[in-house]
Amino acid sequence: MKFLYKYPHAAFPYQQLLDENRARGRSKSEYELIDTGIFDEDRYFDVLVEYAKASAEDILVRISVTNRGAQPAPLRLLPTIWFRNTWSWDAREKRPSLRRAEDSGAVIELKDDYYGGRWLHCEGVPELLFTENDTNTRRLYGATGGAIYSKDGINDYIVHDAKDAINPEQRGTKAAAHYSLSVDPGETKIVRLRFTDQSLSSAGTQEFTKDFDSIFANRLSEADEFYQTVIPEKLSEDARNVMRQSLAGLLWSKQFYHYVVKEWVEGDPAQPRPPLERKKGRNHEWPHLYNADVISMPDKWEYPWYAAWDLAFHCLPLALVDSEFAKEQLLLMLREWYMHPNGQLPAYEWAFGDVNPPVHAWAAWRVYKIEEKRRGTGDREFLEKVFHKLLLNFTWWVNRKDPEGNNIFQGGFLGLDNIGVFDRSKTLPTGGHIEQSDGTSWMAMYSLNLLAIAMELAKEDKAYEDVASKFWEHFIHIADAMNRFADENIELWNEEDGFYYDVLHLPDGNHFPIKVRSMVGLIPLFAVETLEPDLLDRLPGFKRRLEWFVDNRPDLTGNVACMHVPGRKERRLLSVVTQDRLRRVLKLMLDENEFLSPYGIRALSRFHQDVPYILQVNGIEHRVDYEPAESGTGIFGGNSNWRGPIWFPVNYLLIESLQKFHHYLGDDFKVECPTGSGQMMNLWEVSAELSRRLSHIFLRDANERRPFYGDLEKFQRDAHWRDYLLFHEYFHGDNGSGLGASHQTGWTGLVAKLLQQSGE
Q1: What burial class does residue 564 get, using C-beta atoms within 10 Å of its C-beta: 0-12 exposed, 13-18 middle, 19+ buried?
Q2: Model-level pTM greater than 0.70?
Q3: Which of 214, 409, 618, 680 is least surrounded by Cβ atoms within 10 Å, i.e. has the fewest?
Q4: From residue 311, how far is each of 6, 259, 305, 332, 333 by CA, in Å?
């Protein structure tokens, strides 16, 4: 593992960043570090930190510092080690210790009752600095007590020359090796450390470096050899670099996460009691939740938290490099100390009770198939474990999000933040409720995912045939409801526009479609599955019930993609969207004046740039405009935008859905792509075109520019910047530049799977 830190020679411009961003409105882009000029004339260091294991308990660290500027520059390098502070909030915890090892040069000795002894061996003769990993309550709260040597003591010693900020006895719970370097222009200086469960001091202070370089060389060679089995040879060097870095970002974003709701609500034993309001505060309905695991995070660097639907998408590219970890992650969210007793999955740390799209079954099925393809056999035990727990979650959805029992679902904002006219997680200003096109489509997709898993399990256990029939029939009811809403003749499908919309249901019984052309109307495409004829023949019970239902319930199957007509190679199609409606939706989706961007499918149609959707409620105007970059509205937090940018997760699902449709419809079913171009493509070719557009957000174009870097010339042109990639949260709907969290590999790591399966 390795990471690169670009560290400026000058003092970090904290105040400048704060002041400028406070002064900017929503219409302006964020004022970034690169904008401050602090990297001008290359006045910075490249600090490359690498880790390699000699064994499970023998970790080698190599830090390479290169001065990119034209003048010599000093650098204080502080490799730091500390114990996670558990003693401050639990009086039962015994404080561990760090100290300078006696008669051993620059060695920090660690002692802990549980883990025993460890030693950090530091090359050369650095100054060893010790303090406690305790909060500075004097500085923060004006307290008279508290730790004398607090966690910011090393900073104060280095930056403010506060000699009394570190422990002269050279012991504590936090320590750093202080290297004071002077680095000439273009020079690289290397510092080596070794963290082991063995004391090497008796063999001499430099003994730990004797096999250092050969171990690193071996580990690098092994890593290259491994990735040759993952990354297709046909990819260009640039594409291989993109794929490997996206996978590296996901591997780096694993984080130990500890959150025990009951203890948080009641307060820590060694701390003052929390305010009474906390007993009814956030997440108090989840007292069973006990997180103490390594979890794949969307954003480890700034605010480490997990999100269930983000994590599901992480697991697909992770399955290419570590399928065991991917499976463990999916199972973890379903464990009894995560999943609510009522069957709901935890959404994310600040509101476990929020509702994310139900993509867990889809991710589990895809991870199973990816591993099966790579290893030659699938992990049926994993699939069965996932399936049983997902039955509880599916039941929660049916009971909680379809209260009227009409198979139309009301799931809240469903992860799409500000995509709609209203915040769908709150009481509507109109009263009533929204019949959700996307919420209902997600549930149709969920039914088909569980159907696919049940049929796979039924190959060896016929008991699953009955369960497969249950999910097939559930899908039929949902699909029928979407296309012909119960007895009220309310269709989420709008025949005039050829598109799916949410329907606003008012308290007086009136209803009308909310005609926003958004991803909400494309999500019905996700609910598609094909059934192979040989599998149907192997499951005669399921086939018999399917055929009876088709023959005897035309009232339900008449509004769904027909199962009567076999497609390519006698396959059967299960889809919310009929062939005619598929053509009409794709006509809009593939129109470059609507959804199709040079870099993927926009979350909102560009049509709304000139024709915003406006709804007057009680004299207040609610509107949706096309916003290809950051959002101008604060609805649902306002920190992410689904009103025009390109998001990888839903684009990936669209690509996969088109492939499934092609699996049934074959090469003869063609559409214009782009709409109006006269260029006809089958749906497999359309999926490949979308994949190409998404991947090329990162790849160098004919002008040697990467679209996601936008107009940042240093990133585009500088040899020391241009090949180090950032995997943003989402991307500009028109020019592909990176937006949102720039260090959030997260689900944007799906680009690795796109390159692996579809190339460039």
Answers
A1: exposed
A2: yes
A3: 618
A4: 29, 17, 10, 11, 9
